[in-house]
Structure formats: structure tokens, C-alpha cells
Amino acid sequence: MDTWTGLLHGFGQALSPELLLLALGGAVLGTLVGVLPGLGPIGAMSILLGLTSSLGPTASLVLFAAIYYGTMYGGSTTSILLNLPGESSSVVTAIEGHEMAKRGRAGAALAVAAVGSFIAGTVSIVGLMLFAPTLSRWALKIGPPEYVTLILAGLLLLVFMSPGSVVKALLMVGVGLAVATVGLDVVSATARYTFGVPELTQGLGFIPLVVGLFGIAEILSVISEKQRPGRLRTPGYREMFPTREERTRSVKPVARGSILGFLAGLVPGPAPVLATFASYTLEKKLSKHRDQFGSGAIEGVAGPEAANNASAAAAFVPLMALGIPFAPTMAVVLSALLLNGVVPGPKFINENPTLFWTVIASMYIGNIMLLVLNLPLVGVFARLITVPVTVLMPVVLAFTLVGVYAANNSMFDVAVAVVAGLVGFLLKRIGFSMAPLVLAVVLGVTLENSLRQSLVLSDGSLSIFVDRPISAAILAVLVAAGLWRVFTQLRQRNTFVRQPVQVEEF
Amino acid sequence: MSRAQAVAAEVPTRGNRMRLDVGATVGAVVLLLLATAYLWLSLAYQVGAMSKPGPGLLPRLIGILLVVASVLNLIATLRESARRVATGEAGAPFEINEEVDRPAPRRAWATFAVLVGFLFLVPYLGFLPSLCLSTLLVMKVLRASGWRRPFVVAVAVLLVCWLIFVYLLRLPLPVGLLTGL
User: Fold this and answer.
1) Which tens digit of pLDDT belongs to each residue from A331-343?
2) How far apart are CA A344 and CA A290, in angstroms?
3) What is the CB neighbour count within 10 angstroms for residue B61?
4) Spatial separation of the C-alpha atoms in residues A363 and A126, rounded to whole Å
5) A115–chain B nearest CA distance, Å
6) Which residues in chain A are closer than 8 Å to B101, comparing Cβ atoms?
């Protein structure tokens, strides 16, 4: 199916009342989740995973995609109005956005964020649409050795790019891989790390793990923090229009943010967070109004907001073209597909053209919905933050528990989620991040199978990983990234000494 | 709270920060112990020949990675801890914030206890009644005032879950021995 027929076909499907309703529901839910600090897209999706087997693959993808970019919109709202980033990807927006709000330009900041997000989201979907099928045709040529290097590269790039300690991220990758080895080894029929527990022979389920490590752990973190009541003042409709100057100053940052975000979304790692930080730094360097940065420069809102939305759509590319999720969010999307018996991989787009194009079309529609919804309803969404944690978190927790049970009809899974919740909460408190762990759990099984197949193919020689060109190229990229990380770490070591002084001024 | 107040508030809570470091150290030691156990258990599985790898190959490699990484992590944690105690340094900006809004991990533990209770109650009370009860308890853990609002919320959760999962999706939720619900 070529691009235009595919797209037309997709719109034909996506405009059905059922899918429109799901896209709308997802967009609203995503925005709400984005507004709430603590609860992120992963939490929301994992709660809903239980529903996906009744929804079917297309509807699940439509819903999850809408939730994902909905959170990107929602996160900016509270950043700007209350200086409370709802998502880690909106932290940067708070810097300039809230300053603008203090100067009475909250409306303009929100409008620029929404319109910029819309443009970047659309650009990025075009990229996804053109890029994913091409990449998957190319990916048909790859075999087990390439999968090994690709997965290793994915995990290690995540380690290198994660903010914070490399050792900690590496340790979490190890823990994730270790968790993935629990269960029956299919090749040799050996039970590994099951300790005689029959439920463990099937391995620890990904869904209860992700629900625990992200959903329940997040809830536990939120309730153990002191609540900060925010003073909310929402801007009126008239204030929503940016001035001519604000508009012209936003155009280029949005364009740059879109491209930057799309590229960041393609590589493993916390793409939206990295993309926003990179975009902010870039805009600060390029801006003619550099002196205004820190006191409400609109470029600092437009660029990062565009970047995080662009990275959201781009994250679908590796999943759809290679079947490998490079971000925890995409791992949840992957499990929704697996629950429906759809296994993404290089053949995915060719074998499921209707699914692919419907999802693409619904992404365009969802983006328009979000733009239309967000501007007039910004006050309503922001007010959600005034719902007390004492009510909100127990309710979210209850739905989480039902959600885990429903995904597999298993109380054992609920128990796994509860334990994983505590483990995740404790690990986060001492500075570990959950993303490398979760991705390693997902990729571990494929890694092991591909590694063993490769070694059988090569009769035990490791040279198979460097002799094949694609595999060698991936390894080269990996080495380059490793060196880059070492280099930046060395440079940072000097800046760290100065940091406390900067912090006082922050 | 202004920056100055935040910095001032930090002095008496220094003990609190040191406790946080104890947490990190204990965590690092536990991770090292678990990593060693994992590696030790992996010895029971056959590694096989390179040309015919067995079920033990990857666990062995992961085990080594885990032990090395957790030793490095322990060293880094101890160093960081020692450095902070020695210099009394403020640390990263996020930690200052954490001390101003002093975290209440007790609530998290209490909530976890309720969740464990939930797991044990399900066989007797059934899924939805246990869920309703634990929602109520979690709200009390979070110091929701009075009983009326927690009660209303818990019953609302029960009804909504029943409506979506039992009525609409026809999902068989576990039924309790005692209640038959």
C-alpha cells in the first residue's frame, strides 16, 4: 500500500464513531494524567492494559497513542500556571513558562505551547508515516546477530543517555535482564530461578511488573510527599492570543524543536526529557533575546514543548519498524499488542497495513482534538490539581489493582505488582530510575534467544557480531556513544563544583 | 518558602539527610547480596559449549554484570555519603526540596501494608469487597478527615469497577468464600 492510499484508507477507518470516541477519550485522559504530577503516561496505560484485550489491537493503539501525546499537552499546563510540572518532560517548560505567567502572559505561553505541540506532533507523525515503512523494509534483512547488537545498543544507549549515574543505570539493566531469565528456559526445558513456585515457571509477567514499578511505586511516592497547595489563576480567552512579536519569535523554535524531538524519539532513552532539555539549551544559544532567558522568554516554551510532542510520535518508529520498544511507554504499547496476539517486527506494517494506517490517521485526528480541547478547557484541566491527593490516589490505586487482575485474570500478578510497587518506590528513593530496568525485562528474552541462535549460526564464534555490516555499524555507534558519555562526564565533573552556587540563584 | 528560608530550614534537618544516605547504603548492600545470590544460583545451570549455548550462559553473564555493577554502586554510595558528611555540603537542588517538603515514607509503608492485607482478604471476601475496604483504609492512611467522604468514595469505586469490569466486560473477578460476592 503506498502512502496516499494507505492514509486515505486509514482515515476511512479512523473516522468510525468507535475509534473517534476512543481517540477523544484517550486525549482527555492523557491530558488529565499529564496535569497530575506523579501519574504519567505509563501509569495510565498500564492501568488500562486490562481493557485492551477486549478492545482489539487497533482500538488499543489508538487509545494509547492518544493518551501518550495527551500527556505531553497536559504536562505543560500546570508547569506554566503553577510551576508544577505534571511530567518530567515539562520540567523545562516551567522555567520560562511560569515566568511568563508571572508577567501576566500565561495565556500566550499556553497558546504557544499548544499550537507548537500541535505543529510538532503533526510533523512528527508525517515522519513516522514516511520513515517507519522504509525502515521496516530495511529491517527485513536483519537476523539474530543484528538483534543482539541492536538490543545491546538500545540498553547501553539508555544507560549512557540517562541523566545521573551510569553505574546505577547499568545495575538496573542487570536487574531487568535477571528478572527476564526467571521461568522455564524453552530450549532446554530447565526451570530457572523458580524456587519451586509453579506460577514462576511462566516467568514474571511484564504487565504486573510495569504496573508495580511505575504505577504503584509512583502512587507511593506521591503520597509520601508533602502536598503543596497551589494558587490557581487561569487566564481568560482574550489573553490566549500571543502578540505578533511572540508569534514570530516562536516560529523557528517550534521548527527546530520538531526536528530535534523527532530525532531524539528514535534513539533509546527518556526521549521527551532529553529532547526538551536539548531544545531549551539550543534556543538559549541561538536566541537574539538571550538576556530574557530566565525571566520568561517565549522561545524557551515554544522549542521544548514542540520537542516533547515530536519525540512522542517518533518513539513509535522503532516499535513499529523493528518490533523493539526503545522507551518504557512503548514497552507498554508493545504488551497491549501482544495481549491481542499481534507481534510487531519488521513484517508488522506489511502484514497489518490497516492497523498501521488507521493508527497514523487517528494520530492526526487526536492531535487536532487536543488542540481544540486544550485551549478553551485549560482552566478545567488545571483545576484537577485541586482534587485532594487523599481522594485521588486511593481511587487510582484501586483501578490499578483491577487493571492488573483484568490483564491476565491472575491474583498472582496482582501480588507481583504490589511487591514490585514497593521495590520500585524504595529504589527510586535511593536514586535509581525504573526505565532501564523495565526495558531490560522486555528485551531480555529476545536478547537471549537471538544470542543463542547467533552462536549456533556462527558455530560459537563471536566474530559474527563484527563481520556482518549492519551489526558492525550498530556496534560502532555504540562505541561512539560510550566515548561521548565519558567525554561529557569528564567535562561535567568541572561544572559540578560550580553548581551549588548556580542553585542558590535558581 | 523563600530561598533563604529553605536554606535556613536545611540546617536542623541535616540529620534527616544523613538518614537518607543510610537508606542508600543499605539499598546498595542489599543489591550486592541479591546480585551475589543470583550469580551463585546461576552456577546450577549448564553454560554449554559456545557453539551450543545452554540455559546458564546468559544468567552467568548477567550475574557477573550484576555483581560488578553493585560493587561499583556500593563504593560510589559510600564515597558520596562520606563526602557529604565531611563537607556538610548542600548537595543537589532536588534534595534541598525534598527536605523542605519532608517526605513521609510511613504513609507509603502503611499503604503497602493495606495492599498486602488486600491480597490476603480476596479469597475470603472476594475481589470487589476487599478492594472497597482497602480503598477506605488507604484514604484513612492518607488522613482523609471524617468517615463519610472516604466511605462514599470507596463505594463509588466499588460500583464503577463492578459496572466496567463485571457488567460491561464480563470479567470473572474472584469471588469470596465468606461473602459469595
Assistant:
1) 888 888 888 888 8
2) 45
3) 17
4) 10
5) 31
6) 225-226, 228
